[in-house]
Structures are given as structure tokens and as C-alpha cells.
Design goal:
This protein has about 160 residues and is mainly beta. About 10% of the residues lie in helices and about 50% in strands. It has one helix and 13 strands, in the order βββββαββββββββ.
């Protein structure tokens, strides 16, 4: 069986911008099972993007979302305002469960536009192995890419 890239990377999703609040806790994180987006921009001769991004959608699948995160997401959806969401790859936490370091990441400012919830599982004996799967669709207005060298690339759709 082929070793999938996604089997080696853990992606944590946080509500908010890590550049504004570096005190994210492991308890605030939602584990991302899958995400997908495409970002189309014009590049100059040096290869740097410029101008505006074209409207892009971000699809995220999470399992067992926390009640607090879900309430924040639904609240943002009802206000029709964009909010920040931070995705961190292979985050490590200190003894207080605060983020110590991460490999890479990105921050999206986006409008949550659709949430689909499904539940599947079976019950054998006294064990319930059911899982709640949440699929979130967002309209991206900006993306900030974060690297281990603390450099960031800000792509904004004004």
C-alpha cells in the first residue's frame, strides 16, 4: 500500500489569527481530516504574486468538532462577516498545552457559507464507534502563508 503524504502530517484548525494571538491551546484545535482550495493569481517576472486573487472556495472536513468551535463558526455564518482561521501543520505543544512550534501553516480570512453534518457508525455491545463528520465550505477573501522562517506571504482579495 502506498504511503500517503497526508498520513505523515497533522493539520490543526484554530478559530482566529495566530499572528494576533499566539496563545492558542491544544484544546482550541480541531483536527482536519481533509482540506482543499485553489488560489489563482497573476505573477510578475520574479514569480511573486500580485493583484487580487480570484474568488476561491476552501473545503474543510473535520471530525468531532468541539461545541465551542461549532458555536463560533455558526455565529460567524449568521453575521455574514469574514473571520480568521489558522491552519497549522505538525504543531507541537508545551506542558501547558500551548503552541510551542509548528512546521508551516496558513491563515485564511473567509466567510463560512455552508456546513454539512453527518454521523455514521455502528454500535456493538456497549461500544459506540460513531463519528461526527463536519464539512465546511468557506469563501476566501485573503490567505497568509506562514513558514518556519517566520516569513509570510499575504494574498488579499480586496
Amino acid at each position: 500500500m502506498a504511503d500517503l503524504f497526508s498520513n505523515r502530517i497533522n493539520v490543526a484548525l484554530f478559530h482566529g489569527n495566530i499572528q494576533d494571538n499566539s496563545m492558542f491551546s491544544r484544546n482550541d484545535a480541531v483536527v482536519v481530516g481533509h482540506y482543499q482550495y485553489s488560489c489563482r493569481k497573476t505573477r510578475n517576472n520574479s514569480g511573486m504574486p500580485y493583484g487580487f486573487i480570484h474568488a476561491s472556495y476552501l473545503d474543510v472536513t473535520v471530525r468531532n468538532i468541539s461545541e465551542i468551535f461549532e458555536k463560533e463558526l455558526l455565529s460567524t455564518m449568521t453575521t455574514n462577516e469574514a473571520d480568521d482561521y489558522t491552519f497549522l501543520f505538525n504543531a507541537d505543544y508545551d506542558n501547558n498545552l500551548r503552541i510551542k512550534r509548528y512546521d508551516d501553516g496558513f491563515i485564511v480570512r473567509a466567510f463560512p457559507i455552508d456546513i454539512v453534518e453527518s454521523f455514521s457508525g455502528s454500535k456493538e455491545g456497549n461500544e459506540d464507534d460513531g463519528q461526527r463528520i463536519i464539512k465546511i465550505k468557506m469563501l476566501i477573501t485573503s490567505i497568509i502563508y506562514l513558514g518556519e522562517s517566520s516569513l509570510s506571504l499575504n494574498i488579499t482579495n480586496a
